[in-house]
UniProtKB/TrEMBL annotation:
SMART domains: ANK
SUPFAM superfamilies given in the database record: Ankyrin repeat, Pseudo ankyrin repeat-like
Alphabetical UniProt keywords: ANK repeat, Repeat
Originating species: Fusarium torreyae
ANK repeat ranges per the UniProt record: 82-114, 288-310, 381-404, 490-522
UniProt key word Ubl conjugation: no
Protein name in the entry: Ankyrin
Parts of the chain that traverse the membrane: none
Keyword Chaperone set for record: no
InterPro entries linked: Ankyrin_rpt (IPR002110), Ankyrin_rpt-contain_sf (IPR036770)
PROSITE patterns: ANK_REP_REGION (PS50297), ANK_REPEAT (PS50088)
Alphabetical list of PANTHER family matching this protein: ANK_REP_REGION DOMAIN-CONTAINING PROTEIN, ANKYRIN REPEAT, PH AND SEC7 DOMAIN CONTAINING PROTEIN SECG-RELATED
C-alpha cells in the first residue's frame, strides 16, 4: 500500500480538511508524522487557525494569521457539523475584542454559515447578523455590525427586519438602524415592516424618503401596495396609489394581486379602491387558478362578491386548479372549523365576524342566482357543492341546493361516495337530520356502496368521534339491510374502519352487535389488528378499551409476532401511506421508522404498559429483531437488522430534543422487558442495546443506561459482552463515568462467575 506521503498535495490537504471530529489534534498529529507532511499540513493548519482562535478568543492568533495573508472572510470548521467565518464564531462565543478587530478590518457580514443554530431548516445558512441578534451575549453587537459593516440580511434574501419585533426593548435600537438603512430596497423593506407592525407614523415618514422605490418587491414578490392590502390599511393604500412607482396589478410569487389580498381581508373599501384602477384585472387568476371572486366567496362579504360579479371578465362558474368553483368555496366557508382572517384576538385565536353565517348563506344565494352557475358541477375530487355541504353537516345549504334541478342527490365523487356517505362521516348532530333529508329524496338507498364497496356504516364508524350517540343510528342502518361485515376493496369492514381511526369504543360496540374482526386480519404494509390498535394513542379512557380489544384479538388467535413490511421512511411525496385514503374516512398513517412486531409498539407507548404485559404473557418474543426503515439510518454497508431493545431505545428519543425525560417515561416498560428476558447484547452486526445506551450517555443522556444496568441480570447479557464494552471505554478517558457504571455492573452481576 502506498504511503500517504506519496499522495498529491491536494489530496493530503483534503484529508486534513476531513479531520473534523477533533480537527486541531488530528491535523497537528498529521503534521508531526514527517518533515514532508509538516511542510504541507502546517501552512494548512495556520490558515485554519483563525476559526479556532475566534471561537476561543485568541485575538493575537487572528492578528498574526491576518498579517500572513489569512482570509478573514473564509469559512471553516471548529466542531463537527459547524462551518462559519471568524465573525460568526466570535459573535456566538462572546469575544467582543475579536469582533471589534474584524469590524476594523472590514470583513463581509453576509457570508453563510452551517450548524451554529437550529433556528432554520438544515439547508438555510444564516449570516452573522442572525447570530448577533439571537445567539450572542455581546451587548450592542448587532448594532455594531449594522453600523460599521453594513450588515442587513440575516440569511439569503431575508432582511433582518423580517425577524425583529419593535415591541421588544432590546431590539429597538437595531430596528431603528435598519428602518433608516439607506437605499431603495431597504426603504421598501422598512415600509413593509412599518405597515405590518401598524406603525403608521413610521410608515408615513418612510413614504417621504427620496430613496424609496415602492415597486421593489420582497423575496416573496410582495410589493408595498400588496402589503397595504393584506394588512387592511386603506389610508396607506390611498397614499401609495398616488405614487408613479406603484402598480396595483403586480402579483406576488404565488400570483396573488393586491385585489386578491383585499378580498382575503373582507375589505370592501380596499376592493372598491383597487377596482377603480385601470391596471387591475378583476378576473386575474393566481397560481392556483383562483380569482378574487373565489377568495371572496370563501370568506368574503356578499357586498364584495356582488361588486366582483359586476366586473368584466369575472365568471361565477370558473373553476380553480382543483375544480372548485366560487360556489364550492362559499359552501366550504360555512365550516365551523374554518375561521376568516378577521378579528384576531391578542392570544392568536380567531373570532368569527358577527353575522358571518347569515352573510355566507346570502352569498350562496347570490351565486346560485347567476345564470352561468351549475350547482351540480364536480371538483377534481368529484365533489359537488352538495357533497361539500354534507361534508360539513350543513342542512341549510343542503336544502337550498336540493331545490335546484341541476343538483343530483345521487352524484358520486371520485371514489364513488354519494352525498349520503359524506353526510354519514360528519360528526355534528345536524348530520343526523341531513341524512334523514337525503334519504327522503327519490332514488337514494341506504344500502348504496361506493366504488370500493364501503357502506354508509363504514363512513359512520370510520370518521371522527360523533357529537351524538351512534347506537340508534347503527341499529337503524343494520335493520335497513346494511351488512355489518361487508368488506371493502381494501379489506376493511366498518369495525376495521373504527379501529383504523382510533375509535376503540365504536369498535367495541360493533363487536357487541355482531361484527367479526377476523374477516380481515392483515392490512396495508402487513399491519395486523394488534399493530393497528397499538399505533393509536392509549390515553385513558381510550387505553382501557384498547387493552380489552388486544386481549380479544389474542384470544381469537391473532399472531403476536407478526412483522410489518414497510417501504423506507419517509416516503416520496407522491406516495400516500394511509390505510384507506378517501374523503370522509379518517384513516391512520401506519408507517414508522421500523418494521417490527406489535411488542415494539407497546414498549414505546408509556400508556400501553398493561398491553405490553399481556403480549409478553401471551408469548411475544422480547428479543424479536427490529428492521430499520428510516432512510437516514439505512446504510448499504450495514445490516438493517437491529436488536429489539436497540429499537426501543431508538424510538424512545424525541427526534427534535432528545433528553432523559423521554427515557424516564418508559422506565417501567424497560423494566418489564428485562424481566421477561430482553437482552443487552446482540448477535448481529449492528451495535448492541448496551452499546446504544452508552452512546446516548456519551451525549449526556444517562437515563437509559442506568435503567438497563440497574434492572438487568446475567440472564440479560453475557459477561464477555460487558467486558468488551468496558474494554472499548477504557480507551475513552473522557467518558470515565460510563466506564465506572459498566465496571460496577460487572462486579455486581458476575461477581461469582468466572
Amino acid at each position: 500500500m502506498a504511503s500517504i506521503e506519496a499522495l498529491p498535495v491536494e489530496t493530503i490537504c483534503r484529508i486534513a480538511d476531513m479531520c473534523t471530529e477533533d480537527p486541531d489534534k488530528a491535523q497537528v498529529a498529521l503534521a508531526q508524522t514527517s518533515h514532508h507532511l509538516h511542510g504541507i499540513v502546517y501552512p494548512h493548519i495556520r490558515a485554519k487557525s483563525i476559526f479556532w482562535a475566534a471561537r476561543e478568543g485568541r485575538l493575537d492568533t487572528i492578528k498574526e494569521a491576518h498579517e500572513h495573508g489569512a482570509d478573514l472572510n473564509a469559512s471553516g470548521t471548529t466542531t463537527l457539523g459547524q462551518k462559519a467565518t471568524p465573525l460568526h464564531y466570535a459573535i456566538k462565543h462572546g469575544h467582543r475584542a475579536i469582533v471589534e478587530y474584524l469590524v476594523k478590518v472590514g470583513v463581509d457580514p453576509h457570508v453563510p454559515s452551517k450548524g451554529l443554530c437550529k433556528c432554520y431548516k438544515e439547508f438555510v445558512e444564516p449570516y452573522a447578523l442572525h447570530i448577533a441578534l439571537d445567539h450572542s451575549e455581546i451587548k450592542g453587537v448587532a448594532e455594531l455590525i449594522v453600523q460599521k459593516l453594513g450588515a442587513y440580511w440575516t440569511k439569503s434574501d431575508t432582511p433582518a427586519l423580517e425577524e425583529l419585533y419593535p415591541e421588544e426593548d432590546h431590539q429597538k435600537e437595531v430596528v431603528d438602524l435598519l428602518v433608516n438603512f439607506p437605499g431603495p430596497g431597504p426603504a421598501a423593506d422598512a415600509l413593509r415592516f412599518a405597515m405590518i407592525c401598524l406603525k403608521t407614523a413610521v410608515a408615513t415618514r418612510i413614504l417621504a424618503r427620496p430613496d424609496l422605490d415602492a415597486s421593489i418587491p420582497d423575496s416573496n414578490g410582495r410589493t408595498v401596495i400588496y402589503c397595504a392590502a393584506f394588512t387592511g390599511q386603506i389610508g396607506m393604500a390611498k397614499l401609495l396609489l398616488q405614487r408613479p412607482d406603484v402598480d396595483a396589478s403586480v402579483a406576488d410569487n404565488g400570483g396573488h394581486t393586491p385585489l386578491h389580498a383585499a378580498a382575503d381581508q373582507r375589505s370592501l373599501p380596499l376592493t372598491e379602491l383597487f377596482l377603480q384602477r385601470r391596471e387591475v384585472d378583476a378576473g386575474k387568476v393566481d397560481d392556483m387558478g383562483m380569482t378574487a371572486l373565489h377568495i371572496a366567496a370563501g370568506h368574503g362579504k356578499p357586498e364584495i362578491v356582488k361588486l366582483l360579479l359586476e366586473q368584466p371578465g369575472v365568471s361565477a362558474a370558473l373553476p380553480d386548479n382543483t375544480g372548485m368553483t366560487p360556489l364550492h368555496w362559499a359552501v366550504r366557508s360555512r365550516d365551523l372549523m374554518i375561521r376568516p382572517w378577521e378579528n384576531m384576538m391578542p392570544n392568536g385565536a380567531f373570532v368569527e365576524p358577527t353575522g358571518f353565517r347569515e352573510e355566507s348563506l346570502e352569498l350562496i344565494k347570490l351565486l346560485l342566482a347567476q345564470h352561468d352557475v351549475n350547482a351540480g358541477v364536480h371538483s377534481q375530487m368529484g365533489f359537488t357543492p352538495l357533497h361539500q355541504a354534507c361534508l360539513i353537516g350543513d342542512i341549510k345549504v343542503a336544502k337550498l341546493l336540493l331545490k335546484r334541478h341541476d343538483v343530483d342527490v345521487k352524484a358520486r365523487a371520485s371514489h364513488g361516495q354519494t352525498p349520503l356517505h359524506i353526510a354519514a362521516s360528519n360528526w355534528r348532530p345536524s348530520a343526523l337530520m341531513l341524512m334523514g333529508l337525503l334519504l327522503e329524496q327519490p332514488g337514494v338507498q341506504i344500502t348504496d356502496v361506493d366504488n370500493d364497496g364501503r357502506t354508509v356504516l363504514h363512513y359512520i364508524c370510520g370518521s371522527r368521534r360523533k357529537g351524538y350517540t351512534i347506537e340508534t343510528l347503527v341499529e337503524t342502518v343494520l335493520r335497513e339491510g346494511v351488512p355489518i361485515n361487508k368488506v371493502s376493496a381494501n379489506g376493511l369492514t366498518a369495525f376495521h374502519q373504527a379501529l383504523c381511526c382510533g375509535e376503540f369504543w365504536t369498535a367495541q360496540y360493533l363487536l357487541s352487535v355482531g361484527a367479526d374482526p377476523m374477516v380481515s386480519t392483515r392490512f396495508k404494509y402487513n399491519n395486523s389488528l394488534l399493530h393497528i390498535c397499538l399505533k393509536h394513542t392509549g390515553t385513558p379512557p381510550n387505553g382501557e378499551v384498547r387493552t380489552e380489544l388486544i386481549e380479544h384479538f389474542i384470544a381469537k388467535g391473532i399472531e403476536i409476532d407478526n412483522y410489518t413490511d414497510s417501504p423506507p421512511h419517509p416516503l416520496s411525496d407522491d406516495h400516500d401511506s394511509k390505510i384507506d385514503d378517501v374523503v370522509g374516512i379518517r384513516s391512520m398513517h401506519p408507517l414508522m421508522e421500523s418494521d417490527c412486531t406489535p411488542l415494539l409498539l407497546a414498549a414505546t407507548d408509556a400508556e400501553a404498559l398493561e398491553s405490553l404485559e399481556i403480549l409478553l404473557e401471551a408469548g411475544a418474543n422480547p428479543n424479536a429483531p427490529v428492521i430499520i426503515r428510516d432512510r437516514e439510518l439505512l446504510d448499504p454497508n450495514k445490516s438493517d437488522r437491529q436488536a429489539f431493545l436497540s429499537g426501543v431505545i431508538r424510538h424512545t428519543w424525541d427526534p427534535e430534543e432528545p433528553g432523559d425525560e423521554d427515557a424516564m417515561e418508559l422506565q417501567e416498560s424497560f423494566q418489564m422487558l428485562l424481566k421477561y428476558g430482553s437482552r443487552l447484547d446482540f448477535d448481529g452486526p449492528r451495535e448492541s442495546p448496551l452499546q446504544d445506551a452508552c452512546k446516548a450517555a456519551e451525549e449526556g443522556r444517562f437515563a437509559v443506561l442506568q435503567i438497563l444496568l440497574e434492572n438487568s441480570t446475567a440472564k440479560n447479557v453475557s459477561k464477555s459482552h460487558v467486558e468488551k464494552v468496558i474494554s472499548d471505554y477504557e480507551k475513552k478517558p473522557q467518558h470515565s463515568r460510563i466506564l465506572n457504571l459498566l465496571k460496577k455492573f460487572l462486579r455486581k452481576v458476575f461477581r461469582n462467575r468466572r
